[in-house]
Amino acid sequence: METQTGGFGENTKFDDDGRLKRQGTLMTASAHIITAVIGSGVLSLAWAISQLGWIVGILALTMFSLITLYTSCLLANSYRSPDPVLGDRRNYTYMLAVQNNLGGIKYQLCGLAQYGNLVGVAIGYTITSAFSMSAIKRSNCFHSNGHEADCHESNETYMIWYGIIQIFLSQIPNFHKLSVLSVIAAIMSFTYASIGLGLSIAKTAQGGEHPKTSFTLEVTNKQKMWSSFQAIGDIAFAYVFATVLIEIEDTLKSSPPETQVMKKASAIGVSVTTVFYMLCGIMGYLAFGNDAPGNFLTGFGFYEPFWLVDFANACVVLHLVGAYQVFAQPIFKLVEEWSSKRWPECDFIVREYHITIPLFGTWSLNLFRSTWRTIYVVITTVAGITFPFFNNVLGFLGAASFWPLAVYFPIEMHISQSKIPCYSSTWMGLKFLSGLCLIVSLLAAAGSIQGIVQDLTNYRPFTSVS
């Protein structure tokens, strides 16, 4: 067996940490980011702007994109930590980066925030995919039976099918094997966002009386105030990918430096998604006005061109199939590595069975990996069936993850690594940014929780219908 003897020689199979040489590039990292960022969040942006008005809505999109790009570059710097003995030490996960840079209680809080958010995203993607699948069935029903037909569809069956697909895909061993799936998912995200944009432009260009829009934020009643807070949470959810940034960076080749490539990938990913978000949010708001639906793809009446709306919703499903895996892999890795260290002698946990599959080569089967990942998918699917609240769930996930994961920890690690003096102008500026984002996250969380509570008052479990 060939071993590493130092440096990054082309003839070695291993990187400086003794692991198999990483093969990720700027393209694959950008695809992972776009897959993670352009997700179900884009579908709610027209609604978010309708709650905030033109000025505040566009300003919120701009500010979240700039903050996300800045803090992502700070977080990328945390992939390697200086070590007096080992030199630059790799941090394979977000939690490990926080542990090596901040340690203590912050490490535990990071784990709670990160993995809680990853579970929440899996649930949110299950809900969104089911809504898109049921929208396809409803669209065909309206087309066949007329616009007045009763075409309501149960969402539970579609969530179960989505879960079954994820059980099979979850057997992909690790993040390094997801590149093809991420590229396909990224293409799907561009496709449905472009279709939604095109339909919005077409609807706006039809002429006639245009839907009413608001230039400024209009808080006319208490419910409108809560909806405005929730809209901020939806925008925050649309941008957050910090939960998987370090894991994506760990897939990159060692040369050029991972940090350098990751910053470029972040710039590409955030720039591309911001352009799409602006176009979809603005044109969706122009098309529907203050009555914009929570999922703007469902706002075109399910009528004509029904096949194009069907195709867009199919792209949503295909994208979220891949995005689910991007967000699930860090949880899979955490549990599997902890278990193998805790019970290294247990064959059920550590033994790999190599199975030859005709035309596909050799498949490595691990019984614990297969069992645990199946259980995880089942849990997230059942949770999605139990609480199928699209907009409120997205808003809460965005609010709960944006400040701690996308702002607080990246800033704190940057201050620690750069040894920025307390109360210096740089320190004060970073703390002010962190405090401002905390306030925004708290307001967004409050709005989303209020919306979930309101939904629960009129909801019966396992009876979700679109």
TrEMBL record:
Main localization category:
membrane
Q: Which domain of life is it from?
A: Eukaryota
| Domain Amino acid transporter transmembrane, residue spans | 23-453
KW Transport (keyword) present: yes
Q: Which keywords accompany this UniProt record?
A: Amino-acid transport, Auxin signaling pathway, Membrane, Symport, Transmembrane, Transmembrane helix, Transport
Alphabetical list of Pfam families matching this protein? Aa_trans
**Membrane topology classification:** Multi-pass membrane protein
Membrane spanning stretches:
29-49, 55-76, 178-205, 225-246, 267-286, 306-327, 370-387, 393-411, 432-453
Where is this protein localized, as stated in its record?
Endomembrane system
Its family remark reads:
Belongs to the amino acid/polyamine transporter 2 family. Amino acid/auxin permease (AAAP) (TC 2.A.18.1) subfamily.
Function, in words: Carrier protein involved in proton-driven auxin influx. Mediates the formation of auxin gradient from developing leaves (site of auxin biosynthesis) to tips by contributing to the loading of auxin in vascular tissues and facilitating acropetal (base to tip) auxin transport within inner tissues of the root apex, and basipetal (tip to base) auxin transport within outer tissues of the root apex. May be involved in lateral roots and nodules formation.
Name the UniProt record assigns to this protein:
Amino acid permease 6
Q: Native species of this protein?
A: Ziziphus jujuba (Chinese jujube)
Higher taxonomy: Eukaryota, Viridiplantae, Streptophyta, Embryophyta, Tracheophyta
